[in-house]
Structure formats: C-alpha cells, structure tokens
Amino acid sequence: MNYWLVKQEPSAYSWEQLVKDGGTFWDGVRNYQARNNLQAMKKGDLVLFYHSVVGKEIKGIAKVTKEAYPDPTSDDSNWVVVDLKPAKAFNKSVTLEEIKANSKLKDIALIKQSRLSVMPLKEVEFKTLLKMGDTPYSGR
Q1: Please, what is the Cα angle at 36 between 35 and 42, to 5 degrees?
Q2: Which of 38, 53, 86, 117 has the fewest other C-beta atoms within 10 Å?
Q3: Which stretches within the chain are classed as H helix?
Q4: What pLDDT is recorded for position 140?
Q5: Which residues does the UniProt record annotate as the domain EVE (predicted)?
Q6: Residues near 17 by beta carbon (within 8 Å), at least 6 away in sequence
Q7: 55 neighbors 99 (Cβ within 8 angstroms)
C-alpha cells in the first residue's frame, strides 16, 4: 500500500463535500509531477485530504477506488484523474503549523514542495500524521 496527500481549497471542494458526495474523481491537476503521482496511485492506497489556503489542515483519510484514467474535464489526454472515497474523518485536524513543528515531518513534501497538489507520503509520515490527528486507522 502507498500513502498520499492531496490538497484542495475548501471553497473549491472540501472534505465535507467529499463526505456528502460519498466519493469523487480527483480532477483539475495540471502539473506534471502531480499527474505522475496520480498515475502511481493504486486501488486501496490511502490519501490524506488537506485543506489549502483556508484552514491549512488535514481533515481526513480517503481511499483510492479507481486508478488513473483520462480526466473527463480536459480535452488533453496528458491529464488523468483517480476516484477517491472518504474513509475516515480525522478526530482532530492537523494544521500546517503543527506539521512544520514536528521533526519527524521535516522532509514531508507538503513543506518541501508546498505548491504540489498531489504528493507521496512515507509510511512513517502517514502514521505520524494519524497520531497527531488522534485518528487510529487500520486501512480497511
């Protein structure tokens, strides 16, 4: 299993909207590195959902339910989407300030490549963030 983090402005699409919808395809990615990360996602991978700009916090865990396929919002075949469904809300949101203050997360892409919208996480980073969010999760 692989671990990921996706970023979205809550005014564009929030964690709460994902929960209400029961799932979505993750569209609008127009950065090649982020696109490559989408292409690397496998069914069952776990994805942390981060509110950017407003809030700047991890809100929950999503699961990849369908691997990369052409982005239906684009005529350009270079762009792809994956399907995500909500798995579990964080019991306590984890803020960017808290992430930056944790020495175990000093190399996390969220800090090192702050403009990247889809990024991989190491298992230790994922588990550290779950612990910070007081959110036990087995991945099932």
Answers
A1: 100
A2: 53
A3: 15-21, 32-40, 96-101, 109-112, 123-132
A4: 67
A5: 2-132
A6: none
A7: no
